[in-house]
Amino acid sequence: MTEYTAPLRDMRFVLNDLVGMDRITSLPGYEHAEPDLTDAILEEAARFAGNVLAPLNQSGDKDGARLEADGAHTAAGFRDAYAQFVAGGWNALGCDPDYGGQGLPAVLGTAVKEMWNAANMAFSLCPLLTTGAIEALHLVGTDAQKAMYLPKMVAGTWTGTMNLTEPQAGSDLAAVRSRAVPDGEQYRIYGQKIFITYGDHDMTENIVHLVLARLPDAPEGVRGISLFVVPKYLVNQDGSPGARNDVYCVSLEHKLGIHASPTAIMAYGDNEGAIGTMVGEPNRGLEYMFIMMNRARFDVGLQGVAISDRAFQHALAYARNRVQGTETGVRGGGRVAIIKHPDVRRMLMSMKSRTEAMRALAYVVAAALDTAQRHPEPAERARNQAMVDLLIPVVKGWSTESAIEIASTGVQIHGGMGFIEETGAAQFLRDARILAIYEGTTGIQANDLVGRKILRDQGAAARAAIAEMREVSRRLESAAGDDLAAIGAGLRDAIALLEQVLAWVLGTYPSDPRAVLAGAVPLLHLFGIVAGGWQSARAALAAADHLAAGDNEEPGFYRAKIGTVRFYADHILSEASGLAHTVMYGAAGVLALDEDAFAG
After folding, report:
1. Is the pLDDT of residue 379 over 80?
2. Fewer CB near the terminus (10 Å): N or C of the chain?
3. Phi, psi dihedrals of residue 189, rounded to the nearest 5°
């Protein structure tokens, strides 16, 4: 497997030219995130990702996690890598300084987390879940819970999980059956949870589980679910781990990918009952868990960016070194590297352009989250929060589905060697496949985009985004140069289609909701392609501005950026017309058959 090199040049370009880090660091509480500090963090994160995490990726996939009599054990090298991760303070990057965090912007943490996930996605799932648990406890936990758990979790010496899914429930959380029986000021939890990422492992001294369960008098459905914090080891008065709680990993799932990440089946209360305390108010657990879930959905979308970049780097290295065939149009020439072949170049450009579009969109959404939390003006906070809410399902759904295609293209570039595990290309495809499933499938993200994000405000946030997109297309169409004009025209046409589909959804849903939801996933893909094109177009404009200003230090980078966006406009934005047609006219085919007719 090739080494991982963090794409720092493109990351810095996105942070400085599209996000505007000077604007983020002017927000209250972020003034200390000066350029020298952020550069040092990015450089050190790249070193840690490349030198510590990446070398464990293929061996971890081969060895996997295993369950023994004393619990789950991670693959060789993971415990030591995690100890270095904690010693470096990486878990605390974006956390509240009151609990030992560094209080740095989410958008900077987004760049760092992309590196972790690209280097070793199975490893990175552990801090991903811990971050979500920290956020939930920080926002709705009691003072006692915060004091007991947050300092250790922020430091990373304790990790966190979220326990939602049960065998009979799947994504239907209304069917959760786990019970919470009052016992004085605490509760005893009984039930089983499945698909619990890092539900048990050997990297830390304690694991803090956030668990959905029902009180004895709870109403049916999602309104009767409460949230509880249940540690693996009960916590002593001095804050140290104490007696073993009645929560155990009873099995590890055998998965298609992410083999080094222990995905646990957890049993609560097989003996005396697992002791926990309630987080927040009774029967509001699902509401609180969505705090974790929304952050996790964004982070999973970022995993799509990361695995795409890793697959692209791997395929690019192979294409540069694999000698096969002669160059098209060169008579009598010798054998050449396959990167010389037009179709291989097409595949590489598809991987590169989509990955860079996804990165730009994810970072801009992370910056909007920073602004929504820190801006002094309420109206600006509200505007940015609306943008975050609208685009998180797009980042999650579009980026993860794209990652599967991009990793598959990487296998294709390797040819037959891509189908051989030793080359490493297949692992990226296997690892990427889970991304469109966990933390809410693509269908769930698409229904969320339609129901909670477009219909709830009658398309107001979507129209605001479209207005910003249209301004970028106007700037491009008036700019000098054929490439910029072509990019602007492609974006303009795609925006018009998205706007047409938005009007159709708003007009059709009240009378025919099934027709709209039949096309919800194509709508999400359409929104993602256009939103990615919007940020890519901004990148092309910024690159052109650098070239026009005589920025001669890296003219090749800026010219390549414009060329990459031109490919995106011609090859990716052009898919918008087919997707728009599918959304508006595809329901008849989706709903054509009776259930019995599928088997015939």
Report:
1. yes
2. C
3. -100, 135
Neighbours of 272 (CB within 10 A): 10
Residue-level pLDDT at 600? 67
Q: Is the pLDDT of residue 366 over 90?
A: yes
Distance of CA 506 to the CA centre of its chain: 28
Q: Let me know if 439 is a catalytic residue.
A: yes
Q: pTM, whole model, 2 decimals?
A: 0.96
Closest CA to 294 of 173, 389, 188: 389
Say if residues 201 and 74 touch (Cβ distance below 8 Å).
yes
Instruction: Give the count of beta carbons closer than 10 Å to the beta carbon of residue 325.
Output: 14
d(CA 110, CA 480): 34
Give the pLDDT confidence score for residue 173 in this predicted structure.
Answer: 67
CA distances from 55 to 60, 103, 156 (A): 9, 30, 22
Say which of 439, 468, 554, 575 is annotated catalytic: 439
Residue 401 confidence (pLDDT) above 90: yes
Query: In Å, what is the CA distance from 288 to each residue of 161, 227, 297?
Result: 14, 7, 15
359, 339 Cβ separation under 8 angstroms: no
Residues 6 or more apart in contact with residue 174 via CB below 8 angstroms: 220, 221, 222
- Given its phi and psi angles, is residue 280 left (phi above 0), alpha (psi -120 to 50 degrees) or beta? left
- 27 membership: H or E segment, kind and range: none
- Burial degree of 160 (CB within 10 A; 0-12, 13-18, 19+): buried
- Residues 385-397 have a mean pLDDT of 97
Say if residue 289's pLDDT is above 90: no
Tokens 């697992």 locate to: 274
Please, what is the Cα angle at 372 between 369 and 373, to 5 degrees? Answer: 90
Taken as a whole, the chain contains a residue count of: 600
What are the residue boundaries of the structural domains of the chain, listed by start?
442-590
What pLDDT digit, counting tens, does each position of 308-343 carry?
999 999 999 999 999 998 888 888 788 999 999 999
pLDDT at residue 220 in the model? 87
3-state secondary structure 77-122: CHHHHHHHHHHCCHHHCCCCHHHCCCCCCHHHHHHHHHHHHHHCHH
* φ, ψ of residue 206 in degrees (nearest 5): -155, 155
pLDDT band at 168 (very low <50, low <70, confident <90, very high): confident
What are the tokens at 474?
A: 């106007």
Tokens of 373: 């939390």
Q: Please state, in angstroms and rounded to a whole number, the distance separating the CA atoms of residues 564 and 8.
A: 17
Given the structure tokens 């982070």, which residue do they identify? 299
Rounded Cα–Cα distance for residues 92 and 131 (Å): 9
Helix (H, G, I), strand (E, B) or coil at 458: coil
Burial of 307 from C-beta contacts in 10 A (0-12 / 13-18 / 19+): buried
- CA nearest 421: which of 433, 430, 432, 413? 430
